[in-house]
Design brief:
The protein is mainly α. The protein is built from seven helices and two strands; from the N terminus they run H-H-H-H-E-E-H-H-H. Helix 3 packs across helix 4.
Amino acid sequence: MTDRDEIVFRMEEITRTLRQAFERRIAQSGLTRTQWRMLAYLLRCEGVSQSELARLLDLERATIGQAIDRLEDQQLVERRPCPTDRRVWEVHLLPAAYDLVPLLRKEADWLHELTWNGLTNADVAALKTMLDRIATNISSLPEVLEQD
């Protein structure tokens, strides 16, 4: 195994461990991983369509539809018709979802503090630069894979 292989595996392990730790920390909220990830995306770009949410989360549309159903039951989101396309439903946050943000933020901050312990701002900036470069390098992978 090369150093580059080890780095890729380590990146996967880190993201998996972070997701699992965050999920355990917010268990009292009653949200599943898919649900809190959906809320996080909706906080960034409210009113996104169900199809776009499925693409962003790399999940099937049926899975997203079921998760939205559960979030609607919890009165955290609502579907609204798209004003420009009657076939499209947009997902919007409700006030109860915003009430969860402080809990999610607190737990994320705790996890970030633990994660970045011992690293300087310069270390973090350098890592961000390297990861941005890697992301740029692999950004064409979906198109390349579709050509095969």
